[in-house]
Amino acid sequence: MSAKRDYYEVLGVSKTDSQDVVKSQYRKLALKFHPDRNKSPEAGEHFKEISEAYAVLSDPEKRKIYDQYGHEGVDGRYSREDIFQGARTNFDDVFSNFGSGGFDSIFENLFGRSGGFGGFARQKGQDILHETNISLDDVFRGKRIDIDIRKNIDCDTCKGSGCAPGTSPETCSACRGQGQVRMTRNMGFSTFVTVQPCTKCHGEGQIISKPCSSCKGTGKTKGTKHISFDIPSGIDNGDYVINGEGESIPHGQSGDLIIRVRVNPHKFFKRDGADIFYDAKISIVDACIGKTIEVPTLEKNEKVKVEEGTQPNTIVKLKGKGLPHMGSKSRGDQYVRLVVDIPSKLNKQQKELLEKLRETFD
Fold this sequence. Notes:
With 362 residues, the chain is α+β, with helices and mostly antiparallel strands. It is 28% helix and 27% strand.
């Protein structure tokens, strides 16, 4: 799959531009590439690209996530339908005087008649939830996970077509494969046109005259599907979406697979976003006269200089030694807190030495 272009680059705006600027720029590009106005072969793909970028950048919450985590952050948290559904009002606002029918028309141009909201949207299968626990080391390096999901899968006999072997679906004669029929009613000086799902093919545009005996024409049987996916480095606790890998239903749209990620506590480190924290114990002698110590990081031990006269709970920062920022090459920092370990019991020699030391301060 080719990498997506940066949404700001797609629209030709900057991260500091206001929502009004983003909307104005998208409107200009939409007027240029809308398939109803631009008949070039590339116009449709350009229109999809700029509309997806606008759907994200016009929503303050999604824009904030995108600014922080990039495409992985948005795609991991939202399905494509969720991205556009959240921007319904923004699209209607842009196209209110455009003559394209607003959000429902825009979505039809993007996904086709059967994939949108409103109109004759296909039913969607249930989402499937899978919970997984990962370690902080997995967060640091990323991890590939393989799972087997029990769900509806394509029938082996008909390969998901629903047709008996050797046959194929026939174009519906009632709607001529459109899945919808138009009804015109003349009322005085006005003509009303309504569009309804075809009752013969139930909006599918095709009819299976000889259904598969194994799945009874549904094209689906219960089975197990092996799914592999990558946990990106820098991931945090939360739900992440794999589009279309949920439960599938006959002649409908597959649900999504929701991956619920939980990061296990680490033995040494505590986490705050991309930063990690570590407590290093030092003796009162080390705090007084200084010392170079070694502390663990996510990669290897690092040397930390304890300055002479270090006070309890002094914080030392190891720049760039934290976790990766999700969707970025940059990393957070590691903070080392120097905890002065005061012994609760001293032997006779230690007490005598400390008594002599105390005399030097009198």
